[in-house]
Amino acid sequence: MKKLSGISARHIAMAACAATMLASGGALAADAPKLGYSAPFLTDPFQAIMANQTLAAAKAAGMETLPATNANGDAAKQASDVRNLISAGANVLIINPTDSQAIAPVLALAEEKKVPAVLIDIAPAKGKAAMIVRADNKGIGAKACEAVGAAIGGKGKVLSLMGDQATTNGRDRTTGFNECMKAKFPAVEIIEKPTNWKADRATSAAQTVVTTTPDLAAIYMQSDSVMLAGVLNVLKSSGKLTKVGEPNHIFLATVDGTPYALEQIRDGLLDVAVAQPLDLYARYGTAYAKAALEGKTFSAGPTDHGSEIVTVGDNLMDYLPATVVTKDNASDPNLWGNQAAK
Protein backbone atom coordinates (compact mmCIF):
# COMPACT_ATOMS: atom_id res chain seq x y z
CA MET A 1 0.00 0.00 0.00
CA LYS A 2 1.34 3.37 -1.00
CA LYS A 3 2.46 5.67 1.83
CA LEU A 4 2.19 9.46 1.84
CA SER A 5 4.51 11.16 4.36
CA GLY A 6 4.29 8.09 6.59
CA ILE A 7 0.46 7.98 6.41
CA SER A 8 -1.24 5.17 4.50
CA ALA A 9 -3.66 5.81 1.66
CA ARG A 10 -6.18 3.75 3.67
CA HIS A 11 -6.07 6.35 6.47
CA ILE A 12 -6.82 9.12 4.02
CA ALA A 13 -9.72 7.19 2.55
CA MET A 14 -11.04 6.53 6.04
CA ALA A 15 -10.91 10.23 6.92
CA ALA A 16 -12.75 11.16 3.74
CA CYS A 17 -15.40 8.52 4.35
CA ALA A 18 -15.98 9.68 7.93
CA ALA A 19 -16.25 13.29 6.83
CA THR A 20 -18.83 12.32 4.18
CA MET A 21 -20.89 10.39 6.68
CA LEU A 22 -20.78 13.25 9.17
CA ALA A 23 -21.81 15.79 6.56
CA SER A 24 -24.77 13.64 5.47
CA GLY A 25 -25.94 13.17 9.05
CA GLY A 26 -25.20 9.45 9.07
CA ALA A 27 -23.45 7.40 11.73
CA LEU A 28 -19.68 7.09 11.80
CA ALA A 29 -18.27 4.33 9.65
CA ALA A 30 -16.95 1.32 11.52
CA ASP A 31 -13.43 2.05 10.33
CA ALA A 32 -13.50 5.80 11.08
CA PRO A 33 -10.21 7.38 12.14
CA LYS A 34 -9.63 6.62 15.80
CA LEU A 35 -8.07 9.25 18.06
CA GLY A 36 -6.34 8.56 21.36
CA TYR A 37 -5.94 11.34 23.93
CA SER A 38 -3.23 11.17 26.60
CA ALA A 39 -3.51 13.61 29.51
CA PRO A 40 -0.74 14.31 32.05
CA PHE A 41 -3.32 14.39 34.86
CA LEU A 42 -7.04 15.08 35.16
CA THR A 43 -7.16 16.39 38.72
CA ASP A 44 -7.74 20.05 37.87
CA PRO A 45 -10.43 21.81 35.83
CA PHE A 46 -8.08 23.00 33.08
CA GLN A 47 -6.93 19.50 32.14
CA ALA A 48 -10.36 17.91 32.52
CA ILE A 49 -12.10 20.54 30.39
CA MET A 50 -9.36 20.39 27.75
CA ALA A 51 -9.70 16.61 27.49
CA ASN A 52 -13.48 16.84 27.17
CA GLN A 53 -13.37 19.63 24.58
CA THR A 54 -10.72 17.84 22.52
CA LEU A 55 -12.65 14.59 22.40
CA ALA A 56 -15.82 16.51 21.48
CA ALA A 57 -13.98 18.32 18.68
CA ALA A 58 -12.60 15.03 17.37
CA LYS A 59 -16.07 13.47 17.29
CA ALA A 60 -17.42 16.52 15.47
CA ALA A 61 -14.62 16.09 12.91
CA GLY A 62 -15.77 12.54 12.19
CA MET A 63 -13.34 10.60 14.33
CA GLU A 64 -13.91 7.81 16.78
CA THR A 65 -12.37 8.55 20.17
CA LEU A 66 -10.95 6.32 22.83
CA PRO A 67 -11.44 7.35 26.48
CA ALA A 68 -8.86 9.90 27.62
CA THR A 69 -6.04 8.36 29.62
CA ASN A 70 -4.78 9.90 32.86
CA ALA A 71 -1.06 9.64 33.66
CA ASN A 72 -1.53 11.12 37.15
CA GLY A 73 1.69 13.11 36.72
CA ASP A 74 3.73 9.95 36.08
CA ALA A 75 5.82 10.03 32.88
CA ALA A 76 6.25 6.24 32.89
CA LYS A 77 2.48 5.78 33.12
CA GLN A 78 1.98 8.20 30.24
CA ALA A 79 4.33 6.10 28.10
CA SER A 80 2.29 3.03 29.02
CA ASP A 81 -0.94 4.90 28.31
CA VAL A 82 0.20 5.80 24.81
CA ARG A 83 1.25 2.21 24.08
CA ASN A 84 -2.18 1.06 25.23
CA LEU A 85 -3.94 3.64 23.07
CA ILE A 86 -2.02 2.45 20.01
CA SER A 87 -2.77 -1.18 20.88
CA ALA A 88 -6.46 -0.25 21.18
CA GLY A 89 -6.44 0.95 17.59
CA ALA A 90 -5.64 4.65 17.79
CA ASN A 91 -4.22 5.75 14.45
CA VAL A 92 -3.65 9.35 15.55
CA LEU A 93 -2.77 10.78 18.98
CA ILE A 94 -3.18 14.04 20.85
CA ILE A 95 -0.82 14.20 23.82
CA ASN A 96 -0.34 16.75 26.58
CA PRO A 97 3.03 15.68 28.04
CA THR A 98 3.55 15.26 31.76
CA ASP A 99 7.32 15.68 31.29
CA SER A 100 8.97 17.45 28.36
CA GLN A 101 12.07 15.23 28.42
CA ALA A 102 10.36 11.90 29.04
CA ILE A 103 7.94 12.33 26.14
CA ALA A 104 10.75 11.86 23.58
CA PRO A 105 10.72 8.03 23.56
CA VAL A 106 6.92 8.13 23.45
CA LEU A 107 7.09 10.20 20.28
CA ALA A 108 9.67 7.78 18.87
CA LEU A 109 7.30 4.88 19.53
CA ALA A 110 4.43 6.66 17.80
CA GLU A 111 6.66 7.40 14.80
CA GLU A 112 7.78 3.77 14.66
CA LYS A 113 4.13 2.63 14.67
CA LYS A 114 3.24 5.21 11.97
CA VAL A 115 0.79 6.93 14.33
CA PRO A 116 0.96 10.75 14.00
CA ALA A 117 1.16 12.57 17.35
CA VAL A 118 0.03 16.15 17.90
CA LEU A 119 1.11 17.77 21.18
CA ILE A 120 -1.01 20.42 22.86
CA ASP A 121 -0.24 22.90 25.65
CA ILE A 122 3.26 21.59 26.45
CA ALA A 123 6.18 21.09 24.04
CA PRO A 124 8.78 18.31 24.11
CA ALA A 125 12.41 18.98 24.94
CA LYS A 126 13.22 16.68 22.02
CA GLY A 127 11.45 14.29 19.71
CA LYS A 128 9.34 14.80 16.59
CA ALA A 129 5.63 15.58 16.57
CA ALA A 130 3.24 16.14 13.68
CA MET A 131 2.52 19.58 15.20
CA ILE A 132 2.67 21.31 18.58
CA VAL A 133 -0.18 23.62 19.55
CA ARG A 134 0.48 25.89 22.50
CA ALA A 135 0.66 29.48 23.66
CA ASP A 136 3.86 31.51 23.92
CA ASN A 137 4.43 30.76 27.60
CA LYS A 138 7.41 33.11 27.91
CA GLY A 139 5.07 35.78 26.64
CA ILE A 140 2.47 34.70 29.20
CA GLY A 141 5.04 35.11 31.97
CA ALA A 142 6.01 38.53 30.62
CA LYS A 143 2.36 39.66 30.51
CA ALA A 144 1.93 38.65 34.15
CA CYS A 145 5.16 40.49 35.03
CA GLU A 146 4.02 43.68 33.34
CA ALA A 147 0.73 43.65 35.22
CA VAL A 148 2.41 42.94 38.57
CA GLY A 149 5.28 45.38 38.11
CA ALA A 150 3.04 48.26 37.10
CA ALA A 151 0.58 47.61 39.93
CA ILE A 152 3.20 47.65 42.68
CA GLY A 153 5.09 50.61 41.30
CA GLY A 154 8.15 48.63 40.25
CA LYS A 155 9.31 47.76 43.75
CA GLY A 156 8.52 45.34 46.55
CA LYS A 157 8.49 41.60 47.21
CA VAL A 158 6.66 39.19 44.91
CA LEU A 159 5.98 35.52 45.57
CA SER A 160 6.31 33.43 42.40
CA LEU A 161 4.57 30.06 42.70
CA MET A 162 6.30 28.10 39.97
CA GLY A 163 4.91 25.32 37.84
CA ASP A 164 6.77 22.07 37.23
CA GLN A 165 10.19 23.01 35.85
CA ALA A 166 10.34 19.61 34.11
CA THR A 167 7.78 21.00 31.65
CA THR A 168 8.35 23.66 29.01
CA ASN A 169 5.36 25.62 30.32
CA GLY A 170 6.73 25.76 33.85
CA ARG A 171 10.17 26.83 32.67
CA ASP A 172 8.86 29.33 30.13
CA ARG A 173 6.42 31.00 32.52
CA THR A 174 9.25 31.36 35.03
CA THR A 175 11.76 32.63 32.48
CA GLY A 176 9.36 35.08 30.87
CA PHE A 177 8.36 36.53 34.24
CA ASN A 178 11.92 36.78 35.56
CA GLU A 179 13.45 38.23 32.39
CA CYS A 180 10.72 40.87 32.22
CA MET A 181 11.20 41.81 35.88
CA LYS A 182 14.97 42.12 35.45
CA ALA A 183 14.58 44.32 32.39
CA LYS A 184 11.63 46.50 33.41
CA PHE A 185 11.33 46.34 37.22
CA PRO A 186 14.81 45.58 38.58
CA ALA A 187 13.92 46.78 42.10
CA VAL A 188 11.36 43.99 42.55
CA GLU A 189 12.49 41.08 44.75
CA ILE A 190 11.17 37.72 43.55
CA ILE A 191 10.63 34.93 46.09
CA GLU A 192 10.46 31.69 44.07
CA LYS A 193 8.75 28.55 45.37
CA PRO A 194 8.37 25.32 43.36
CA THR A 195 4.98 23.59 43.33
CA ASN A 196 5.21 20.94 40.57
CA TRP A 197 1.60 21.87 39.65
CA LYS A 198 0.46 20.48 43.04
CA ALA A 199 -2.25 22.35 44.94
CA ASP A 200 -1.03 21.27 48.37
CA ARG A 201 2.53 22.39 47.65
CA ALA A 202 1.33 25.74 46.34
CA THR A 203 -0.84 26.29 49.42
CA SER A 204 1.96 25.30 51.79
CA ALA A 205 4.45 27.61 50.08
CA ALA A 206 1.99 30.49 50.11
CA GLN A 207 1.26 29.91 53.79
CA THR A 208 4.97 30.09 54.66
CA VAL A 209 5.72 33.22 52.65
CA VAL A 210 2.53 35.12 53.48
CA THR A 211 2.99 34.60 57.24
CA THR A 212 6.71 35.46 57.24
CA THR A 213 6.72 38.35 54.76
CA PRO A 214 4.64 41.23 56.17
CA ASP A 215 5.55 43.50 53.26
CA LEU A 216 4.61 41.05 50.50
CA ALA A 217 3.29 43.10 47.58
CA ALA A 218 2.10 40.51 45.07
CA ILE A 219 1.72 36.82 44.24
CA TYR A 220 2.23 35.34 40.76
CA MET A 221 0.58 31.95 40.29
CA GLN A 222 1.56 29.95 37.20
CA SER A 223 -1.77 28.07 37.25
CA ASP A 224 -4.99 29.36 38.77
CA SER A 225 -6.47 25.94 38.10
CA VAL A 226 -4.10 24.47 40.70
CA MET A 227 -3.09 27.35 42.96
CA LEU A 228 -5.70 30.08 43.26
CA ALA A 229 -8.18 28.54 45.70
CA GLY A 230 -5.43 27.63 48.16
CA VAL A 231 -3.80 31.06 47.96
CA LEU A 232 -7.11 32.82 48.60
CA ASN A 233 -7.71 30.58 51.61
CA VAL A 234 -4.23 31.36 52.95
CA LEU A 235 -4.79 35.10 52.57
CA LYS A 236 -8.20 34.86 54.24
CA SER A 237 -6.94 32.81 57.19
CA SER A 238 -4.04 35.24 57.61
CA GLY A 239 -6.33 38.26 57.64
CA LYS A 240 -4.75 39.59 54.44
CA LEU A 241 -7.49 38.97 51.90
CA THR A 242 -8.72 42.33 50.63
CA LYS A 243 -10.48 43.35 47.45
CA VAL A 244 -8.82 45.00 44.49
CA GLY A 245 -8.32 48.69 45.23
CA GLU A 246 -8.62 48.38 49.01
CA PRO A 247 -5.76 49.37 51.35
CA ASN A 248 -3.00 46.77 51.87
CA HIS A 249 -4.28 44.69 48.95
CA ILE A 250 -1.81 42.00 47.82
CA PHE A 251 -1.86 42.04 44.01
CA LEU A 252 -2.70 38.63 42.54
CA ALA A 253 -1.84 37.48 39.02
CA THR A 254 -2.52 34.02 37.60
CA VAL A 255 -2.28 31.97 34.42
CA ASP A 256 -4.99 29.79 32.80
CA GLY A 257 -8.27 31.72 33.09
CA THR A 258 -10.46 28.98 34.57
CA PRO A 259 -14.14 29.64 35.33
CA TYR A 260 -13.19 29.97 39.01
CA ALA A 261 -10.50 32.55 38.23
CA LEU A 262 -12.87 34.65 36.12
CA GLU A 263 -15.42 34.54 38.94
CA GLN A 264 -12.80 35.78 41.43
CA ILE A 265 -11.90 38.64 39.07
CA ARG A 266 -15.56 39.66 38.82
CA ASP A 267 -15.83 39.45 42.62
CA GLY A 268 -12.81 41.73 43.02
CA LEU A 269 -10.50 39.23 44.72
CA LEU A 270 -8.20 38.43 41.78
CA ASP A 271 -6.55 41.27 39.86
CA VAL A 272 -5.53 39.67 36.59
CA ALA A 273 -5.38 36.33 34.80
CA VAL A 274 -3.54 35.56 31.58
CA ALA A 275 -6.05 33.23 29.95
CA GLN A 276 -4.73 30.35 27.89
CA PRO A 277 -6.67 29.59 24.68
CA LEU A 278 -7.87 26.18 25.90
CA ASP A 279 -10.72 26.05 23.40
CA LEU A 280 -8.25 26.70 20.58
CA TYR A 281 -5.92 23.95 21.82
CA ALA A 282 -8.83 21.54 21.43
CA ARG A 283 -9.99 22.93 18.09
CA TYR A 284 -6.66 23.21 16.33
CA GLY A 285 -5.09 20.19 18.01
CA THR A 286 -7.90 18.17 16.46
CA ALA A 287 -7.55 19.94 13.10
CA TYR A 288 -3.84 19.17 12.93
CA ALA A 289 -4.48 15.54 13.94
CA LYS A 290 -6.97 15.16 11.08
CA ALA A 291 -4.56 16.92 8.70
CA ALA A 292 -1.76 14.54 9.68
CA LEU A 293 -3.98 11.56 8.80
CA GLU A 294 -4.65 13.19 5.44
CA GLY A 295 -0.92 13.56 4.77
CA LYS A 296 -0.97 17.36 4.91
CA THR A 297 2.14 19.28 5.89
CA PHE A 298 2.68 22.82 7.12
CA SER A 299 5.45 25.41 7.19
CA ALA A 300 6.46 28.34 9.37
CA GLY A 301 4.51 31.56 8.99
CA PRO A 302 1.15 33.18 9.76
CA THR A 303 -1.92 30.96 9.94
CA ASP A 304 -5.49 31.60 8.84
CA HIS A 305 -6.61 31.78 12.49
CA GLY A 306 -4.58 34.70 13.81
CA SER A 307 -1.53 32.83 15.10
CA GLU A 308 2.01 32.08 13.96
CA ILE A 309 3.62 28.75 13.18
CA VAL A 310 7.26 28.84 14.27
CA THR A 311 10.10 26.37 13.91
CA VAL A 312 11.55 25.16 17.21
CA GLY A 313 14.25 22.51 16.81
CA ASP A 314 12.83 19.73 14.64
CA ASN A 315 9.24 20.75 15.25
CA LEU A 316 6.65 23.24 14.11
CA MET A 317 4.65 25.01 16.83
CA ASP A 318 1.43 26.89 16.30
CA TYR A 319 1.70 29.69 18.86
CA LEU A 320 -1.82 30.72 19.82
CA PRO A 321 -2.58 34.06 21.48
CA ALA A 322 -3.20 34.42 25.23
CA THR A 323 -5.53 37.08 26.65
CA VAL A 324 -4.93 39.35 29.66
CA VAL A 325 -8.14 39.35 31.70
CA THR A 326 -9.13 42.03 34.22
CA LYS A 327 -12.50 43.12 35.59
CA ASP A 328 -13.06 45.06 32.35
CA ASN A 329 -13.26 41.92 30.19
CA ALA A 330 -13.83 39.08 32.67
CA SER A 331 -17.36 38.51 31.35
CA ASP A 332 -16.29 38.27 27.70
CA PRO A 333 -18.19 35.27 26.26
CA ASN A 334 -15.23 34.46 24.00
CA LEU A 335 -13.06 33.47 26.97
CA TRP A 336 -12.90 29.68 27.33
CA GLY A 337 -13.55 29.97 31.06
CA ASN A 338 -16.90 31.60 30.40
CA GLN A 339 -17.80 29.07 27.73
CA ALA A 340 -16.91 26.16 30.04
CA ALA A 341 -18.94 27.65 32.89
CA LYS A 342 -22.20 27.37 30.93
Automatic annotation (TrEMBL):
The GO molecular function terms of this record are: carbohydrate binding
Task: Write out the GO cellular component annotations.
Answer: cell envelope
A Pfam family this chain is assigned to = Peripla_BP_4
List where in the cell it is found: Cell envelope
Where does the Periplasmic binding protein domain start and stop, copy by copy?
36-296
Q: Does the keyword Magnesium apply?
A: no
- Top-level taxon in the UniProt lineage: Bacteria
Could you list this entry's UniProt keywords, alphabetically sorted.
Signal, Sugar transport, Transport
Q: Which family does it belong to?
A: Belongs to the bacterial solute-binding protein 2 family.
Full protein name? ABC-type sugar transport system substrate-binding protein
